[in-house]
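Quick look at the format.
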Amino acid sequence: MEPRSQATPRHADVCLVLEGTYPYVPGGVSSWVHDIVRGLPELGFALLHIGPKAGAYGEPRYTLPANVTTLAEHYCQGAESPEPVLRAELERSIRAMRRQKATTPSRTLAALRRLHLETTVDDALLDGLAAADLSVEAMLHGAEAFEVIREIALVRAPAAPFLTFFWHFRSMHVPLLRLLANPAPAASVYHSVSTGYAGVIAAVASHRAQRPMLLTEHGIYARERDMELARATWDDAGARVQILGCQRPARSCGSCGPRSSRGSRRSPITAPMRSSRSRTSTAGSSSRTAPPRTRSRSSPTGSMSTR
């Protein structure tokens, strides 16, 4: 399904990039965003909301102020096929794709590799992400993507079961590819209220449009995903979960917290980019900002994180 847009599609002063929050999920972050938009009636705001799939949240829980020019929705999951795909047909499609050698290496795949194996964020990295030249099919079934995943696993999680790492990596990055393929609304400034998918998409949109980007982090996104992993029950009890950098057994990890017997069985979609503290930043400057005392934000999987 194509991303949905509504309201008047005109150039906005600010594009707010939101993930699992306003205007669909009530809570501290959504209230903060609503107050910002209402408090600046002289500015036009475009809302880019990232959700798990179409219809996951129902109708907006907030009445959009008159200065909201656009509500665009981008989804982590693709539309389900109305007809089941036969295994034999899928295998034929995969074999045909693998026979087609790419004329040039994927710049997006190279950028994803750099995100995990290097620490430098520069124009070349953003160029690669903005190129959006890696299809979901190539990520899922391509030999080049498999080699990159294997390399990252050997460097970043050598003691973790490769199969576990493989499925985690795919679940994290396939949604990112879908989001990168969709353009963001035009705006003079891009403002993301979290890191994770919203932060990546805002950074890429800012780079594509050559406009400034603002980041306000109201919680530690990667920390919340760590907590979701610690509570999950779908991995082996004794596995050492190193995928997000934790080197201790998941059940006994004091950093992530105890595992819950009622944890979600869905594979979490974890953060492609990590944050070490709450902060506000713009190009060339940064300053700390106190996070709200209460907050509620839904992750792209649809589960709720509350602090």
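Next, a different chain entirely:
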Amino acid sequence: MKMRALPIVVLLLSFVVGYGQPTAFTYQGKLNENGNPANGLYEFQFTLYDVLAGPGSYTSGSVTNAGVTVTNGLFTTSVDFGADTNAFPQQGSRYLEIGVRTNASVGTFTILSTRQRITSTPYAIVAGTVSATGVIGSFSTLGASTVNATTVTATSISGSLNATNLSGTIPDGRLSASVALVNANQTFSGSNTFTGSIVVPAPTTGSNAATRAYVDSAVASTVGVTTANYIYAYDTTVQSVIIGGTYQDITMSGIGLINGWTHGIGTATFTCNQTGVYLVEYTAEVQNAANGTVVHSTRALVNGGVFFGSEATCSLTVVTVPMALSKSFLVALAANDVVKFQYTANPRFGQLTSVAGQSFSCTMVRIQ
């Protein structure tokens, strides 16, 4: 029996490995028996080699398909060498050797000549399984017209890509918006913890602007400290001066946030529970109780003593115009230190007013 198979076309089903695609491809051919188109059931055996003739250095396991229908010499069958990516490597050629015998025969296969060179399509089997470790060469050896940010995306790479295999610079504009840049202003929407020290440069001059800039920088750097480190309290009542020129304690009617401090509603004392450096900010809404020039003053006390740099002063002449007195300063506090805020007016016709909603508010945050 003399047989000959004439290949017509080799097709490979397209797929993506990540979604469990098959590894089989379709082979269509024409089989002649004794010079005439064959008809009936036949058994085909397929084997891959890396050379056109001879054993070569690679031979796949044979795939045998029984009961293949041949009509007028034409047949179609599915060939599957399994998940072995060596069957169709990224480089090198593969040749398909075909053996045939009548179906259910126990005789040897008749090897058809010659081996058929596999076209490039079946190599797509490995394309979906290649990981970063399977990339040959480095990106630095490829021209910009071959590989660029528009042709290679994060979804094109599976597995881990070793940084030592990359060279060159990735433009900032190609980075994710979630990547923080060291030379740009950053806005962090989530919680962030810094394990090292946060260094805030000291002001270069003694001006109020420089001091305030230093304080603002410190506020922006209040991350990575312990959780017990803040309090925000306020008062919404009117507090009038009883004796002109004499400071009196400012009491609070509400607490917005508190952690690591001890404070009672309706009292003026704040007890610090944690040693550290604190940023203190307060705002007092002051107003004249009668027409005439009235000097309004506020300050902070630590353990009964006036803290230098905590004072704020303004002068008003009419009743209807309130003014906000604000102050920011840094203070080193020890555990159990007591902080108070005080207000006075000279002469006595002054008051803390709640026209804007809060007559007084304060915030104390540990920054170091």
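The longest strand covers residues 276-288.

See the schema section for token definitions.
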